[in-house]
Design brief:
Layout (H helix, E strand, L loop, with lengths): L1 H18 L11 E9 L7 H12 L15 H8 L8 H8 L12 H14 L6 E7 L6 E9 L5 E6 L6 H7 L15 H16 L11 E6 L6 E8 L5 H4 L3 E8 L15 E3 L2 E3 L25 H13 L3 E10 L6 E10 L3 E11 L4 E12 L8 E13 L9 E12 L17 E13 L3 E14 L5 E18 L1 H10 L2 H7 L2 E13 L8 E12 L1 H7 L10 E2 L2 E2 L3 E15 L2 E14 L37 H4 L12 E14 L2 E13 L21 E11 L4 E11 L19 H4 L2 E6 L4
Parallel strand pairs: 1-3, 4-6, 7-9, 7-11
Antiparallel strand pairs: 2-3, 5-6, 8-9, 10-11, 12-13, 13-14, 14-15, 15-16, 16-17, 17-18, 18-19, 19-20, 20-23, 21-22, 23-24, 24-25, 25-26, 26-27, 27-28, 28-29
Length: about 775
Amino acid sequence: MTKFKYILIVFFAVLMSSCSTTKYLQPGQKLYTGGEVKITDKQNSKKSDIGPIKTDLTSLLRPAPNSTILGLRYKLWIYFKTRTNKVRGLKHYLNTHFGEPPVLAGSVDLVKNSSILQNRLQNKGYFLAQVSGDTVSKKGSKVAKAVYTVQTGPSYHYRQITFPTGNDDLDTAVAGTAGKSLLKVGDRFDLDVIKNERIRIDARLKEEGFFYFSPENLIMRYDSTKANHTVDMFVHIKETTPDQARWIYSIRNIYVYPKYSLRDTSLKLDSAQRYAWYNVIDPKKTVRPFIFKNTILLHPNDIYNRTAHNNSLNRFIELGPFSFVKNRFEDVTPDSPKLDIYYFLTQAKRKSLTAEIIARQTSANYDGTQFNLTFRNRNAFKGGELFSVNFFTSTDKQFGSYNNGFNVFQFGVEPSLTWPRIVGPVDIKTNDAYIPKTILTTGYTLIDRTKLYKLNSFNAAFGYQWKPNLHKQHALNLIELSYVDAANVSQLYQDSIRKTRNPTLTHVINNQLTFGPSYSFTFDNSTEVFRKNSIYYKGKVSLSGNLLGIVLGADTLAGKAKKIFGTPFNQYIKVENDLRYFHKISQSTKLATRFLVDVGLPYGNSTILPYSQQFFIGGPNSLRGFQARSIGPGSYYPAASVTNGTQFLPDESGDIKLEANVELRQKLFSIVEGALFTDAGNIWLMRSHYGLPGAAFSKHFLNEIAVDAGFGLRFNLSVLILRTDFGFPLIKPVSSNTGVIDGVDYTGSGWHGSKMVFNLAIGYPF
């Protein structure tokens, strides 16, 4: 408590000091506190337009006042407190890097700002707008603000919009874009929209072969002399537009240079090798010509199309072996407009060996280090194939009150091969900027949980990935194979199983064989920062042993468990859903939400999902007020017979998972962001199991939801985001003791410290 008092004293001392920054001003100086826009003739604008107009105009005012947090000019206070004549040292550094000199009212150019605002209004259709500015300050005050009085006048709207009516190709093409015009009858005149309309028309014409056309070849004329404050808009093609801009171009020849360097000065067309519809100039045979068959989307005699051309450029990079691509068009118009295309490709270094040491935190709340050694061959068989082998080793320690030194050591190798095309029976054709890929992955991992057990894990997968556009991605694995074998189980672990008869402990070391297909779909537009609302969704369906189990008549409950090579195989259907919604409240404030619904249905040869396929909850990226994997399943909580004498708790897992998260993110200052959050959820088993009372999913599942809340800080270091979260439980899925509300004792004097969970992680939780 004493420490808390000292913190409060320091806080209020800084607060009072920050409030008195004006005392450092010279006589006659006034601190500028910002500008205010007042609209005096609101009858000329719609009520819904007034707010956006004021916001738009206010954003144009210069200079900006001194930065504040909660009304405190902290940067100005630092500036005054660290002023020094020295050009180096701590004070000079703080003054120049964290301080901010005062913005004085005398530095505000009222006339210039008024002119800028008036011009902005005229560009927005308020042709008769008038703006005047003045400085306002209370008598004896050392602060002042600027007030800009605005008379918008009436807004002008489009009465009619006319496109070209000529009969040549260009007139017809421009007129053909009218159906999707940004200019609409009845809309208010807006210069920004007019500029975007010219760009839109140009983009459309580039899809129709008008290679040399540009937005500057269009002129927008308007007549504002019409009655009732209306405007007639005319879209014209400039008379000075050159003939080349009026022609529709098609493709003649396509040339590709896979081994281009700046020293190359000759086109070497005599050494061109024809393949399909393009020519490859590659005297050193660094790649096989077919590599570009899935890359070049334009063909001879095709009308030039900018989208197809840009997608081709992107696909050259997507291939993998090439780090840079540039292109050149040559006008070869003999009798009709024709273009030759040249693609010059700079190859990346083919083979590489990289090593890295990373600090990490796993989903089970383990903190540790990992060493990776990765070999890559970016053009393994001269067809753009990426062959890579990753060797890794790691050691992790789980921090928590119940771990008692059961650390984890891992070693593994992961070879993989990626083809920049579809290999196999599936035919996936796309014309977008992304190349479909075939991926073969394999791997082996040794997992050693000290003092408990060692597991050998083998896995392999073969499948496809493709993106129909920037926001969507599909992944289809024709087969995923996983085999886990318990190589060594300690006597301590075996004694714990015998004493507790807890099936969870046995389930961890059971040999596990899963095989089957999977499919996932991802939609993500959250990377578009201009969006006010954005969504991320990922859904996945996984199958294992379904057809084989049906053919063999597998039924574990009836005593008909089937095996492959002496190991029972798993039979299940698993569906995962991850939906995230982001709402931008302001430029510095965002609301982030997530909802997870994951269900695994074991049947036939299985009564429970294999441990490697089960769901877990809790930890730094889940319920942050609880230790990782410490909740559930259901209302089950290990009895004293499990914990006493065993020295550890099993990682709780389930077949069903429900989770919801809400987080308010606010930028505070510089690289620091703050967050308030609440999380809710739990896991359950599909069926009841002996030794796990309350673990099965039932109609009372809502009463078994765990809830937490908390706050945190994020440090945006550009290359990564360092995250700290402090969470505490609000509701636990058990309720049995007096003075306890759903498992959380709020009456104890030590609650605030003993129940707090600290999470240190990299990146946002979702």
